[in-house]
Amino acid sequence: xxxxxxxxIFRTAESGGKELLFIQRARRKGDPWSGDMAFPxxxxxxxxxxxxxxxxxxxxEETGIDLGRHGRYLARLSDLITRHHSRWRPMVxxxxxxxxxxxxxxxxxxxxxxxxxxxLEYLAAGENQSQLPWRTPVxxxxxxxxxxxxxxxxxxxxxxxxxxxxxxxxARSEIPQ
Length: 177
Hints:
8-stranded mixed sheet; disordered C terminus; globular
C-alpha cells in the first residue's frame, strides 16, 4: 500500500491568535485535486527515514518552510485511507502537527499556487462550515467543508482539520495527555 504524509503547521499571529497553514495546489491537467486547498506533504520516498521525515521533506520542497530547523513537532493524528493520486490503489496518509517558530517568508515551488495562513478561530466557527456538492457516477454527494475567502477546504484536509480542532493541540504549547 502506498504511504504519504502531510504537515499541519500552526503559528501564533501578530494579533496573538493561532493560524493554520494551507497550500492551494497548482492547477495541472490530469490532477483530480488540481487547485484544491491542502496541507503540504506527499508520498514517502526510499530515502525518507520515516513518514514524519517525508512530511518535513515535502513541506520544505513545496513551501521552503524548514520544520527541522524552525518547527516544533507536537503530535501525530490518525491515519486516513484514500486512493493514490493517479491510480485506484489505496494509500495511507499520516498527518503530523507542528508549531512554526521561524520566519514568515515562504517560497512555494511549482506544485503550489499559493500559501494561506487561516485563523484557527475562523476554521472552528460553525457559521463558516458549509457543504460542497461533489458529483460522482452514482449521484451528487454533499461534502462537509469550510470556505475561506475564495477557497474551499474539504475532503481529507477537512477531516484532518476537524481532528486537529477536536484535540485542542493547536491552542496549547504542549501535547495533551
